[in-house]
Amino acid sequence: MAYLGNRAATGENNSFKILDDLAFTTTFNGASASVVNHTADTITINNHRFLTGSRVTYSNGGGGNITGLTNGTVYFTIKVDRNTIKLATNASNANSGTAINITGTGTGTSHTLSVAFDGVNTKFVATHSSGTKAQITRAAQLFISHNGVIQRPHDSTSPSNGYGIDGPNSTIIFAAAPASTDVIFGNLVANNFPTFDITDNKVDTFTGDGSTTTFTLSRAVVDNNNILVALDGVVQYPSDNTTTRAYSVTGTGSNSLVFETAPGNTVSIHVRHIGFAGASTASVTSVFGRSGGIELIDSDPVVGIQSGGTGIGTVRVLNFVGAGNTFKKTGNVIDISIAGGGGGAGAFTTSITGIQTTSQTVGIGTTSVDDADLQGIGNSARGLYISNGMILHDNAINGNHYIGTSINGLMAGPVSVNGVLNVDGNFVVV
What predicted TM-score, i.e. pTM, was given to this entire model? Predict the structure, then answer.
């Protein structure tokens, strides 16, 4: 007996999975030269679950033996790559890469290699959903029960008890090899995803019948650019806005794949979803403390305020406290009208002559009201000085000056004119 467990119900969380049977049997076509390569001594089994050193039992499935192998005999696998293995006579030869010499194919299409709980195998590939490898880096991501007893996890490839893992290879390593009478049950508690919003890149497969043109995808796609379609391994060109080609998807976000011409009978249709499957970095885990489908809310600080090039914080609300302030929102643009008040700038509400003030300064002050000698027009009005009821002038006029028509000029002398004085109006020297 190998494994007990019930499949999760519909709506199962994307991370929580029931592990596939750790003990398994793989069937392959032993008569096919594309499967059994007697030149390279290899057997091709796509996405196999074998490890180097796995103890397996070979069966010819009622056909003729692959030349070099014997029906019902135990061998040890050598993992060449994810799709290819070799066989060795013992574990030592498997670990050293010494393979059995295969000299020819067998007969029959139901040859098998079986991995069992046999008191020898301690390593098993952790998969779920009928062959999908678990993404694990810590042993605690797995829940393992051995004969009803929960096993202790170890982040080690050589656990002293319970089980450890070889994370990069998604491999469970038991401290003691399970026997044929043992019952093992396992859960994948949490998959490791590269980013916070990853989704698996799916692959859909269909078979043409010569008449069907529409096939339902396992997941809706945005447009034609989000899938890669192949017919018997030949990549097809998608239609676009200007040119009709091999296929398209109907509407935005549709799960209907539509061919312009029905794929022929028995033609293998391979559809790979190539849309977004994860961000390029895992540095972002949440926004404003929230995860999932994030939307901005009114309390989020998204407006940056600065003064003189120095940031003074981020805000979501600008509160105008003066009377008469108004604003209008048009789309994402705010029109603001600021009224006067509280000493701020604004418009005069009555007719005004000159400049009116409510302070001690009358006219234009240059320093402060505490300086008794500088009231009204001060040092900034050079050449003209008002003090104690007198109008004072400089005793020299520097530069060129012009007194225009209907303009009266006054100088109190003696006055030295150091430039050119042009008079078109009236001029009096006292």
Answer: 0.48
